């Protein structure tokens, strides 16, 4: 099986299983994350295109997954033409069928990051580039950011919504111990595990060797290639690993008890982050290509 076939099979399986980040499946956490990103209520992409990125002629989405963001951007008229690519062949096919059925100008492509880096296309092609949950899967960050800078028009915008915590999500001992103490304080009905277990390198390689492969370098490297226009670090140092150890059906059931618990956990993360006890594992920003301006 070729490299692209192996990668495509991996991501097709994930999208078929509706694999998502467990913490933002909770609506209270989801709304909190959006407020951290924008300072306002509502979906973050709507806010971006109404406040920081004027509706554009052309947009490139790198690692578009099932195409949900790109379909929304097209439906809202935020971009007249969209090119989006991902390794998940079946997800791309379904997204293209949806776009075609709605008459949306989106070209979904089945392609690897490495293929884009090697042959990004014509210079100065796009007005905006979107990374949403994809850049932390890129091994060659420097090559990717260079390729994006090449195809982005002068003054074009780069939108980044990413995990930027420890590489491979191998959290430091202090962070693991903090999560474990919170788990121990919860009643059994809300827990699915007694502690947070770090994977072995064999488990990482078998599951997804690109998960957070160089994630900690994202906030360092992106501003070296593009000028910051807007940047926020949005937490997740407690909630993101913790939610993998919670009973999803109970903590997300919408009951007053579960809602109160989640609100308390959000407050705890805010306080721990403010005190410097844990760091931010996620970031959101909009950056400008100043090349040849």
Short description:
The protein is α/β, with parallel strands linked by helices. It is built from 13 helices and seven strands.
Descriptive terms for the model:
44% helix, 293 residues, seven-stranded mixed beta sheet
CA distance, first residue to last residue: 45 Å
Instruction: Give the overall shape, derived from the CA principal axes.
Output: globular
H/I helix tally: 13
Biggest sheet, spatial arrangement of strands: 3-2-1-4-5-7-6
Task: Lay out the secondary structure.
Layout: H1 3-16, H2 27-38, H3 44-51, E1 56-62, H4 68-75, E2 79-86, H5 89-102, E3 106-110, H6 113-118, E4 126-132, H7 141-151, E5 152-163, H8 173-185, H9 201-207, H10 218-225, E6 227-233, H11 239-243, H12 248-251, H13 256-274, E7 282-288
Parallel strand pairs: 1-2, 1-4, 2-3, 4-5
Antiparallel strand pairs: 5-7, 6-7
Please explain how this structure is put together:
This protein is of the alpha/beta class. The chain has a single domain (3-288), classed as 3-Layer(aba) Sandwich (Rossmann fold). Helix content is 44%, strand content 18%. The protein is built from 13 helices and seven strands. The protein has a seven-stranded mixed beta sheet with strand order 3-2-1-4-5-7-6, sandwiched between helices. Strand 1, helix 4 and strand 2 form a beta-alpha-beta unit. Helix 7 (141-151) runs parallel beside helix 10. 39% of the residues are buried. The mean pLDDT is 93.
